[in-house]
Amino acid sequence: MVAMARQPAVAPHPAAEQNDLLTVGVEEEFLLVDPETGAAVPAVDEVMEQVPPELRGQVEREFQTSQIEIGSPPGVELSSIRHSLGLLRAALADAAERAGAQLLAIGTGPVDGPVPPVVDKPRFDRMVERYRLLVPGPGNNGMHVHVGVPDPDTGVQVLNHVRPWLPILHAITANSPFSRSEDTGYASWRSIEWERWPSVAPTPYLASHEHYRRLIRQLISSGVMLDEGMLYWYARLSAKYPTVELRIGDVCPTVDDAVLVAALVRGLVATALDDIAAGRPPLPTDHHLLVGAHWRAAHDGLEGSAVDPTSGELRPAWDLLHQLIGRLGPALERHDDLAEVTGLLEGLREHGTGAARQRMAYARTGRLQDVVAQVARQTRGEPPA
């Protein structure tokens, strides 16, 4: 939910620089629940004790004691990202089981229960003191993708180019339709809860890197943020590494879903770099239209409509996604990702987003505990039914 001081060690790979290929790294946040009731439990300390020592550098506590986070090492090959995420998810699921909990790759807790406390850290204490009831329920769990860029000035230009296309990627990740034991009517309820924080928003159009830095200083001095770590724009520059970080939606239910999003994010950044090199300007999309487009993505996921960033009109979300894939085609081919992305999209079309899968599971039995069990299996690596 809240960005930690640690970020994945995503740095430009020498081979990537030589071949114009970009590194990509992924952060994933998970919910810890009671395996019997499905309600969130404050078990992060117990789970951390059970994580194998050789993996502890890639596992962190998050904002609430019912959350835990992993970060993959950077890679050029999607296969390395897949391997890292699969290994870390399986190890963390085993650690949770040994601690008497269950690991869920889910945007927020579907089953009502007591709200677990915030992790005991001075920074988090200050956040709770200032923002009070903005702190969410059982925990908001997102996915963050880092892609290497040459320098901050170029990174700011990349942010301008990618911002119109983030709502459709937001829709792909929708994975939290239930909250407080009810269907919220949204595909990503996590997104709606998350937007209560004052620094959560689509990335504004930025005139320069100095403009970016000036906005950060002003947001901190105004009290909107405590520090730079609270810059929760949907895309931002990493404060520590030479990357852009896209923070677009819910944690994905499966490794396949996460790899698909990572590939599309890298393709989007690579396409932006191509446009910048060719002198092509970013698509001029109004900020308020982007706010509406992200709301629509949270409401509909991929199973409904999406806002076309070029016209502002509603279109079937899948049509807009196919348009984006056509736009990213050359970059996907250059990274040797196109065939895998095509296959993963076919699977997504067949099974639906995480939100759609949860609703189908609930429709079969009417039990949220069965939804939780399905999400737990997919988190571990079982494919969608």
From TrEMBL:
The lineage of its organism: Bacteria, Bacillati, Actinomycetota, Actinomycetes, Micromonosporales. SUPFAM superfamilies: Glutamine synthetase/guanido kinase. InterPro entries: GCL_type2/YbdK_subfam (IPR050141), GCS2 (IPR006336), Gln_synth/guanido_kin_cat_dom (IPR014746), YbdK (IPR011793). Keywords: ATP-binding, Ligase, Nucleotide-binding. One of its GO terms (molecular function) is ligase activity. HAMAP family: Glu_cys_ligase_2 (MF_01609). Belongs to the glutamate--cysteine ligase type 2 family. YbdK subfamily. The keyword Nucleotide-binding applies. The gene is ybdK. It comes from the Bacteria. ATP-dependent carboxylate-amine ligase which exhibits weak glutamate--cysteine ligase activity. The keyword Amino-acid biosynthesis does not apply. This is Putative glutamate--cysteine ligase 2. Pfam families: GCS2. Signal peptide: none annotated. NCBIfam families: gshA_cyan_rel (TIGR02050), PRK13517.1-1 (NF010041). It catalyses: L-cysteine + L-glutamate + ATP = gamma-L-glutamyl-L-cysteine + ADP + phosphate + H(+). It is an enzyme of class 6 (ligase). Its EC number is 6.3.2.2.
